[in-house]
Amino acid sequence: MEEEQCLTNNGLFRDPAMESHDFSSSRNNYTCTLTPELIAKAREELQEKPEWRLRDVQALRDMILKEHPHLRTRIDDSFLLRFLRARKFDYDRSLKLLVNYYASRRSWPEVFQNLRPSNVKHVLDSGFLTVLSQPDPDGRFVLCLRPGKWRPNDYPFVDNIRAMYLTLEKLIQSEETQVNGIVILADYNGVGLSQASHLGPFLAKKVVGILQDGFPIRIKAVNVINEPRIFKGVFAIIKPFLKEKMAQRFILHGSDLISLHQRLPRDILPEEYGGTAGKLDPSEWWSTLLSSEEEFVAEFCQSFPLGNTDSNDPFIFEGEPTQSHSEDSYRGLRSQLYYCY
């Protein structure tokens, strides 16, 4: 079998009425796009063996059909490969990630209802989020976040989460990104108490829960620059929910651009960060997302609720906190942030 060739059914959505369908007979549209170098990298880092790839996908598909027969999900090879690669081809962990992926949609409807690029244009216009036009030397695209650009009076913070999720969905479509992962560049210039006080422990837990346990993407590094003193309070809120491996991937550069350039070379960075790639232009990524509007409408704006699951399915989020718990958390947060500010 040639390593580059692997065929699959294309774009099918799991439906209980289709349980008797022979999906193996539909695998006729998908061709692997990985270069020989990336195939070798996937083998070494992700335990992906091209000669076993279809077998592994079929094993995950069988587990979905058996253990979660009412989960409405895509089960084509290209989709399931995202989860296998994100969990190094561990079937059980890949299945858990897939279930969490849909559980997050049920648990946070204000993020996922009517989720489409045109509904978050104001976030991209603000400059809060963009993706740099060139990947780093390891082939990883750089997601640039600038929380200081967000003004709480302009729109709710949840809109930032919506824009970030759409961005991740677009990035993970690429097999190169599935293998290489992504890098985050978080610029905290301009972040003050007005922004930081909106990130309470419960919100932090939900955001981190999606990024770590509910989305099939590998975050290889988080480069933080221009962090003010208040960042200590922000990070203290986030850190308890980070796994040790993820916490170790946070690199704090302060205002030291030389330190940043040791991680991200100048030729991929915009002028704002001492780079040579021109001015930072969020409109390019906005155009990329908008070109996929119909695709996102089909995925997130359907009439039926996504993520129907059995009652015993595990969820990464377990309801809202009580009012008293929220008030106590908020008071503690404000005190901590004022102390750091």
Automatic annotation (TrEMBL):
It holds the Pfam family CRAL_TRIO_N. It comes from the Eukaryota. Residues 116-281 form the CRAL-TRIO domain. One of its GO terms (cellular component) is membrane. One of its GO terms (molecular function) is phosphatidylinositol bisphosphate binding. This is Tocopherol (alpha) transfer protein-like. It comes from Erpetoichthys calabaricus. The lineage of its organism: Eukaryota, Metazoa, Chordata, Craniata, Vertebrata. The gene is TTPAL.
